[in-house]
Specification:
- It contains twelve helices and no strands.
- The protein is mostly helical.
- The chain has one domain.
- Helix 2 packs antiparallel against helix 3, helix 2 crosses helix 11 and helix 3 packs antiparallel against helix 4.
- The radius of gyration is 20 Å and the shape is globular.
């Protein structure tokens, strides 16, 4: 597979991911008797992708999706419950998948990536210190964002109990395959890109490294894990990439972050307009 062909496959994977996540939130909202169209589901998820990419700890993602649901005609309590149910249904799938991947690939990953990461950390300690300082600043910013979000959601949370009681079990079960498709398509991006190399690294190491680089962004306090993720990638978290680390990192970031950011920003500008979008950003930051 050539590098160009690999990128085409990655575009198809991301399209499948967008579709799976849209169907997942549609199923959950249908269980709450608050149906949205497929286009509305894609739009609200794109809002969330863009906000995740731009905010520390991805803290802006769920409020942006809540705003998209409100714009689609979903009540605030139902939207809040839908997000909560989606997380409740998704994490068991993610945890089981992570456990299986670690069991199957951790020894191979450690043999391939462990020494490179240790050596890279020793060489790049000034950058690690810089990332730590940037992370501390991001945690401070996230604290301000969280205060504004708590204030915004206080009333919908109190009213959400009615919707919790209405929620049937079937949307949780039906959403599990969508979560699995979401996980597989995103984690597969890096292995597909790596398959275009003249000498690809071991498959197990790439899959586990890809999972770690993606899901580490959930706990890294910089937007999209910026800085730390790049250091890990260039340091060999997915094994030896034969000197092609930069090209693969750029392509991987485009598919896993920038496409969602671009789509979400374009849809937000199209649906809301710049003045409304600017007001929403000011409210979310408490300014």
């Amino acid at each position: 597979m050539t590098f160009f062909e690999a990128n085409l496959v990655c575009l198809a994977l991301m399209a499948a991911d967008f579709l799976a996540r849209a169907v997942r939130i549609q199923l959950i909202l249908r269980g709450l008797r608050s149906a949205v169209t497929l286009r509305q589901a894609v739009t609200l998820n794109a809002f969330g992708d863009a906000a995740c990419a731009l905010t520390p700890l991805r803290i802006g993602g769920e409020p942006a999706r809540l705003g998209g649901m409100l714009r689609a005609g979903v009540s605030a309590p139902a939207a809040f419950v839908a997000i909560s149910v989606e997380v409740l249904a998704a994490w068991p799938v993610i945890i089981v998948s992570a456990g299986w991947l670690i069991w199957a690939a951790a020894p191979e990953w450690w043999d391939v990536a462990g020494p490179r990461l240790a050596a890279g950390a020793a060489r790049a300690w000034p950058w690690l210190a810089l990332v730590a300082l940037a992370s501390a600043a991001a945690w401070r910013t996230a604290g301000h964002l969280r205060t504004g979000l708590v204030r915004l959601l206080r009333r919908p949370v109190r009213r959400a109990r009615v919707y919790w009681r209405r929620m049937p079990v079937w949307p949780l079960i039906a959403s599990a395959p969508c979560t699995l498709v979401d996980l597989l398509t995103r984690v597969a991006i890096l292995p597909v890109l790596a398959s275009s190399l003249p000498v690809p690294p071991p498959a197990g190491a790439v899959w586990l490294g890809s999972f770690a680089l993606l899901y580490a962004q959930l706990v890294l306090p910089t937007p999209s894990g910026a800085g730390a993720v790049e250091l890990g990638f260039m340091g060999g978290a997915a094994g030896s990439l034969g000197g092609h680390e930069t090209a693969l990192l750029v392509a991987w970031r485009i598919h896993t972050n920038l496409l969602g950011l671009a789509l979400g920003a374009w849809l937000a500008l199209r649906e809301l307009g710049w003045p409304a979008l600017r007001r929403a950003l000011r409210r979310s930051t408490g300014r």
